[in-house]
Write a structure and sequence with these properties.
- The protein has 263 residues and is mostly helical.
- The protein has helices at residues 6-12, 25-33, 50-74, 78-97, 103-127, 131-151, 159-185, 197-226, 233-258.
- It is built from nine helices and no strands.
- The chain is elongated, with a radius of gyration of 31 Å.
- The relative contact order is 0.14.
Length: 263
């Protein structure tokens, strides 16, 4: 008796151009079980946006400012401030060399750095009234100027510029170390941190190096957003911005002190 199964009936009515073999029952079952569409793939992580960097930047700077204000109001002893600076240095080196995106590590750095900044700012303010406000305004001006220069593409971040800037930064830190060592044996060391033409010029160079690092931070943020970096990379960007702003603030604070008379 001829089977009335519609599947096998249609298989007998295939056009002459069909050259493939008749599917077996197992193949037909596999075809039936296969999904009719492919599930769209989703990225394994949410990509970083500029808003992520802004939010985490405000959080990191907020922790730093609160810690600085607390250290100023509580008038922490100098040794506590020095200890906080050492801890901040260690945490900063760890975050820098490991490219850490751990928020606890970065916020801890901001807190300890804030204690040190609060104490040193209070010392400068005690000697020269209004100097902290001038340094804050100077840092804000530097930030705005570098952001404008970067946005208008007045200066483009190229591999050659990066190498030159990093070399200048390493050389400046090396000179600071030598100045410190020489200062043990001679008053003022090499004169890099004295109220003199050499000290003024060195402070200007240090401020410019800080602005260069800020330029690198802006480029890193833009490249991260453009290339779809993970959301957590925003913490590393916030850390870089904080580090650069602290550098600029301390150098502006010192530079302003050279030309502001104490009361």
């Amino acid at each position: 008796m001829e089977s009335k199964n519609p599947v096998f009936s249609r298989s007998r009515q295939q056009p002459a151009g069909w050259a493939g073999p008749t599917p077996s029952p197992d193949q037909l079952q596999n075809m039936y079980d296969a999904p009719s569409y492919a599930t769209p793939t989703r990225p394994a992580y949410r990509t970083m946006t500029l808003d992520d960097v802004v939010v985490r930047g405000f959080l990191t700077l907020g922790v730093l400012v609160v810690a600085a204000a607390a250290a100023w109001i509580l008038n922490v002893p100098p040794m506590v401030a020095v200890g906080a600076a050492i801890v901040a240095l260690i945490l900063g080196l760890i975050a820098s060399f490991t490219q850490s995106t751990n928020p606890a590590l970065i916020l801890a750095y901001a807190a300890f750095e804030g204690v040190f900044l609060g104490k040193i700012s209070s010392v400068f303010e005690g000697q020269i009234s209004g100097i902290v406000l001038q340094a804050v305004l100077g840092t804000a001006f530097a930030f705005g100027a570098v952001l404008t220069v970067y946005s208008l593409r007045v200066i483009r971040v190229t591999p050659k510029l990066v190498k030159f800037g990093l070399a200048a930064g390493i050389a400046a830190l090396g000179l600071l170390l030598v100045n410190m060592i020489v200062g043990i044996f001679a008053d003022g060391g090499l004169g890099l941190r004295t109220d003199s033409p050499i000290g003024w010029a060195f402070s200007i160079v240090m401020i410019l190096i800080g602005c260069f690092f800020l330029l690198l931070d802006f480029d890193s943020i833009e490249q991260g957003v453009r290339q779809g970096a993970p959301e957590k990379f925003a913490w590393q960007c916030a850390f870089g911005l904080t580090l650069s702003l602290v550098w600029i603030y301390l150098e502006v604070l010192r530079f302003v002190s050279y030309f502001t008379s104490s009361d």
